[in-house]
Amino acid sequence: MDEKSSTIEFDTAKNLREIKMKDDKNKEATIEKLIEPAVTVNIEKSVESSPTLIARFTGIVYILLSAIIFTGSLFISKQLKVDVLDAIIPCYVLHSTILIIYSKFIKHYSFYEQSKRQELFYLFINVFFSTTGVFSFYFAYRYLPLPDLITVRYTQVIWTAIITALLYREKPSIPMVIAILLTSAGVIFVAQPSFLFNSTLSESKTHVERLIGLSIALYSSVALSIMIISNKHLLLKYKTKQSSIMVHYAVVTLIVLVAKVVYSFNIFTDGMESFKNYFFTWNYLFASLVCLLHIVAIVLTQKAVKREHPAIFTIVQSSNILFSLILQNIFSSTKSNLLSIAGSILVLASIVIITGLKFFNKKN
């Protein structure tokens, strides 16, 4: 959900085995294994090559459907004038309940009894950055149009590459440098700072609001990159169950969302009336039902992960940017200008360079 909000990182058994087999002399390959898309799911089967053409395209169809559901639910909630941070609360209630029942009562996983102190530390890092990253993503939607928000969100692929390169002390390759430059240019085009551009923005969005939203969205992107790396560390070194990691993330995020509602409406003082007028409406009911479809998107993502290479998955999943551009410019009164569209294209190009290079290197 990125829904860490809405808001999104997967691991396969094949990836785990390949990473373990790499020694210190092959750090570059190890870094490439860490540059994966932003969807937190529980995958136990390896990525298999599709034997038929139909099976091959099935994975891509699952990814596209998941992207449409995620992007469409965010757009619909905004058009209904419902804060996405409020609309996704029922989704997180259901998600947390399912994960707790599965982990504790079906699989009988132990959350803390056998955990080491260092493992708990990395688990805290993972939960903190995943929760704040998802929350920041949805919060930034207050200040940025959906295409700009998702464009900045997908710079996470580049941030993950940069952070892992720093951790493994690897010199950046030429394609990575090109991707970083394209991403930087794309973010600048989306932000459109007044000291660089004289373009006329929508009256409802000032330069200050855009910069605030951009800053929050950039933090979300970096935070979710750190979450990917810490998630890998927990899986590889401590053999932490992915479902256990997801339980902590979902429950903590739900607590934060509920706390935000309590604080915003002053429920325990004099805000109960405004709380009822906001939550007990048809708009909120419809928005929350649409956001419940995030659960379906997660299931589709799981199916896609089992069928697609991580690089292909990342490239196709970035179609969120294209879907958001279509929705924004057809069904909304706020249109994207040419600079924003150009920024989205540059970020998409950087994603294709990074993940495409990884895919072809593995093929060779």
Automatic annotation (TrEMBL):
Parts of the chain that traverse the membrane: 53-76, 82-102, 123-144, 174-191, 211-229, 249-268, 280-300, 312-331, 337-360
Keyword NAD among UniProt keywords: no
Pfam families noted in UniProt: EamA
Keywords recorded for this protein, A-Z: Membrane, Transmembrane, Transmembrane helix
GO CC field: membrane
Domain of life according to the entry: Eukaryota
Record domain EamA: where: 58-190
Taxonomic lineage: Eukaryota, Metazoa, Spiralia, Gnathifera, Rotifera
Protein name: EamA domain-containing protein
